[in-house]
Amino acid sequence: MISPGDVGGDPLTEEIVELTGLLRRVVGRRVRDREAVDDIVQETLARLLAARTRLDGRAIGPYAIVTARNLVKSQWQRADVGKRHEHRLADTRDPVRPDEPLLEQEEAEAIRIALDRLAPRERDVLVAHVVEGRDTGSLADDLASTPGAVAAQLGRSRAKLRVEYILALEGEPPTRQCRPVLLSLSAGDRRRQGELDAGYHLLDCDFCASMSEPLFDRRAKATADEVRIPVTVDADVVVARQRGREVAVQAGFSATEATVIATAISEISRNIVRFARRGEVTVTILTDDGASGVLVVAQDAGPGIPDIDLALQEGHTTYGGLGLGLPGSRRLMDEFEISSEVGRGTTVTMTKWHRR
Amino acid sequence: MFVSILQQGDFLIASIHAALDDSELMRFQKDVMAEIANHRAKGVIIDVAALDVLDSFGSWSLRNLVHMARLRGATTVIVGIQPEVAFSIVELGMELDVTTALDLENGLEYLESVTTGHRAGKSMLGVLGSHDT
């Protein structure tokens, strides 16, 4: 701010400073914003002081007023131009969130680690196909292979990449069993899953149970005539028997037979809830030489049954019930098999065939 | 909640409207016992027509409920067991050991007959296929 004290001495300067009040009125009549008024008055005073050597005493007043008016006018023009061009300044892109670059970096790192873990040959083929866009035919020529074999190899590489990507993000799995199990799930390789007893591992290993979900979905879609119901709480028993009934009806069973199957599923699912921490019931449609049926597999990672003969004995009960769970299910179904290992878990496999 | 317990004169009509899991069945049992006391009910009809499955636990808890209600002075009749469910109960090898009636109407008739001094008791037995009393 320019105030009389700063520029004392020079009479012309003092005269200019005394014009402040007049200028404030002149500008104030044209501009509403008080801060803008102050700015324009200051600017006018600065220009008058700069030009004071060229001014004589009488011209100062009118000169000051004209300068102030011009400044107001040019300020209006600037505001107007600014308004007209405002849309050019709008940034329509989403603002970058502070964590975004970090997440991107983590993802890129995870993909890099996952790619590193592929065998060099696998990686080269995958990159050639996905990044460079080469088709399986031309790749097969290079590798002295067939397009089908290259496609199968690409499928396996992708499955491996998915697993390694998830592991790079989530950290190394707790057991040596985890990686092969996740790989078999990702690849949808049922033979390998069977060899590794992947179903049991998923019940037993919390890490894989949570990791496998994105890999699971693909697999679930692959087969329509199979349902898989995770069983941990009471309500899951109802879900398991209802889904099981639907599958039974789909397999051609009558309402009565479907209810019998649902009852057996209810019994064995209850055992999972009651005795094991976590389990799974799988109901699959079977077809064999024109006959059809359902296969029910209930698997858990619970404490196991020390004496299976006793458990299958009618009236033997652990909670004061009827003691009909396992023996009743055996009676309801055509085939019934139970295997259990203390400390590892129990698997009940039962089948019912459709009588025509 | 998937159950309702309504008063009808001296009787309670407890209906299950959807498949119940084990803990819901236990809660149902408790609720019916409480309502028997609240309404000083002499008879209870339990309508299980909407139950999809009556497995060993379901049958066990219903049987217990009937026995407990009897100890509290209320006669109980189970109505609406679906034919498929009945078949499964027999296949499973269970003795349900409770009084049953085909539907709500027959159940009410039965309760009226037993709570008014067994007047129609003998003729009702054949109709209802009851193995209680």
Automatic annotation (TrEMBL), chain A:
<dbReference type="Pfam" id="PF08281">
    <property type="entry name" value="Sigma70_r4_2"/>
</dbReference>
<dbReference type="GO" id="GO:0016987">
    <property type="term" value="F:sigma factor activity"/>
</dbReference>
<dbReference type="InterPro" id="IPR003594">
    <property type="entry name" value="HATPase_dom"/>
</dbReference>
<dbReference type="InterPro" id="IPR014284">
    <property type="entry name" value="RNA_pol_sigma-70_dom"/>
</dbReference>
<dbReference type="InterPro" id="IPR013325">
    <property type="entry name" value="RNA_pol_sigma_r2"/>
</dbReference>
<keyword id="KW-0238">DNA-binding</keyword>
<feature type="domain" description="Histidine kinase/HSP90-like ATPase">
    <location>
        <begin position="256"/>
        <end position="356"/>
    </location>
</feature>
<protein>
    <submittedName>
        <fullName>Anti-sigma B factor RsbT</fullName>
    </submittedName>
</protein>
<dbReference type="InterPro" id="IPR036388">
    <property type="entry name" value="WH-like_DNA-bd_sf"/>
</dbReference>
<dbReference type="InterPro" id="IPR013324">
    <property type="entry name" value="RNA_pol_sigma_r3/r4-like"/>
</dbReference>
<dbReference type="GO" id="GO:0006352">
    <property type="term" value="P:DNA-templated transcription initiation"/>
</dbReference>
<dbReference type="InterPro" id="IPR039425">
    <property type="entry name" value="RNA_pol_sigma-70-like"/>
</dbReference>
<keyword id="KW-0805">Transcription regulation</keyword>
<keyword id="KW-0731">Sigma factor</keyword>
<dbReference type="Pfam" id="PF04542">
    <property type="entry name" value="Sigma70_r2"/>
</dbReference>
<dbReference type="InterPro" id="IPR013249">
    <property type="entry name" value="RNA_pol_sigma70_r4_t2"/>
</dbReference>
<dbReference type="InterPro" id="IPR007627">
    <property type="entry name" value="RNA_pol_sigma70_r2"/>
</dbReference>
<keyword id="KW-0804">Transcription</keyword>
<dbReference type="GO" id="GO:0003677">
    <property type="term" value="F:DNA binding"/>
</dbReference>
<comment type="similarity">
    <text>Belongs to the sigma-70 factor family. ECF subfamily.</text>
</comment>
<dbReference type="Pfam" id="PF13581">
    <property type="entry name" value="HATPase_c_2"/>
</dbReference>
<dbReference type="InterPro" id="IPR036890">
    <property type="entry name" value="HATPase_C_sf"/>
</dbReference>
UniProtKB/TrEMBL annotation, chain B:
<protein>
    <submittedName>
        <fullName>RsbS, negative regulator of sigma-B</fullName>
    </submittedName>
</protein>
<dbReference type="Pfam" id="PF01740">
    <property type="entry name" value="STAS"/>
</dbReference>
<dbReference type="InterPro" id="IPR036513">
    <property type="entry name" value="STAS_dom_sf"/>
</dbReference>
<feature type="domain" description="STAS">
    <location>
        <begin position="1"/>
        <end position="111"/>
    </location>
</feature>
<dbReference type="InterPro" id="IPR002645">
    <property type="entry name" value="STAS_dom"/>
</dbReference>
<dbReference type="InterPro" id="IPR051932">
    <property type="entry name" value="Bact_StressResp_Reg"/>
</dbReference>
